């Protein structure tokens, strides 16, 4: 559940007192530094950013704020800060998700979608050449939002990430994207999830034509049609008795 009082941080105080544009601009400068932040720094920051989204009213400002907050990811200049910032985001969302009421859920779901996209986009920088950053980020997805066994990660959060995973990866992916590696967190969740409903949700996501192509899975229906056509051709060959002399 959102906290009743904002943390003691100047950026957060600005955010929750409805001067968001100025505060977000300051935050961009703050986060673009190469100086390492501690995990506690990022958790305190996300405590306030969550409260900022919580108190943001009306669809258009909510959408703009979600996009502004997800755009912060691109400004993180080091792998350590990227992983630390996104880890704090997922930790905060997993912790607060059960307390989000139905009237506020849509804006948080959009923010989650935006962060799935932003994480992939960060990994795509420099033509996907930063293998270590990609590995650490995918491990983070396996650890928190797509964790197959941790009861502290709400199933509703897992369902939403599963729902948007392929869509957001497609927006970022290109011919250099290591799709099989990028799909690994989703595939692993489908194999190891405790709940059948989660495994079923992953199965539905992996049944998408895009996912099948990325993972090199042939479409069973298309394969069956091809096999039927081949069988028909073989039957015709068997029925052909040759030309009369």
Short description:
Helices cover 71% and strands 0% of the residues. By secondary structure, it is mostly helical. Residues 216-245 have a biased composition (Acidic residues).
Secondary-structure blueprint of this entry?
Layout lengths: L9 H7 L3 H12 L7 H16 L4 H13 L7 H18 L5 H27 L2 H13 L11 H18 L6 H4 L1 H9 L3 H11 L2 H7 L4 H20 L6
Helix content: over 70%
Please report which band the strand proportion falls in: under 5%, 5-15%, 15-25%, 25-35%, 35-45% or over 45%. under 5%
Largest sheet: none
Ranges where pLDDT stays below 50 over 5 or more residues in a row are 1-7, 221-245
* Number of DSSP E strands: 0
Count of structural domains: 1
What is the first-to-last residue Cα distance?
89 Å
Helix and strand sequence: HHHHHHHHHHHHH
Number of helices: 13
- Which term fits the overall shape? globular
The Cα radius of gyration reads: 23 Å
- Mean pLDDT, as a whole number? 86
Please state the structural category: mainly alpha
Biased composition (Acidic residues): 216-245
Main location: nucleus
GO biological process, one term: rRNA processing
Family: Belongs to the RRP1 family.
How would you describe what is shown here?
- By secondary structure, this protein is mainly α.
- The chain has one domain.
- 71% of the residues lie in helices and 0% in strands.
- It has 13 helices and no strands.
- It has helices spanning 10-16, 20-31, 39-54, 59-71, 79-96, 102-128, 131-143, 155-172, 179-182, 184-192, 196-206, 209-215, 220-239.
- α8 (155-172) packs parallel to α11.
- The longest helix has 27 residues, at 102-128.
- The chain is globular.
- The model is unreliable at 1-7 and 221-245 (pLDDT under 50).
- Keywords: Nucleus, rRNA processing.
- Belongs to the RRP1 family.
- Residues 216-245 have a biased composition (Acidic residues).
- It comes from Aureobasidium mustum.
- Residues 211-245 are annotated as: Disordered.
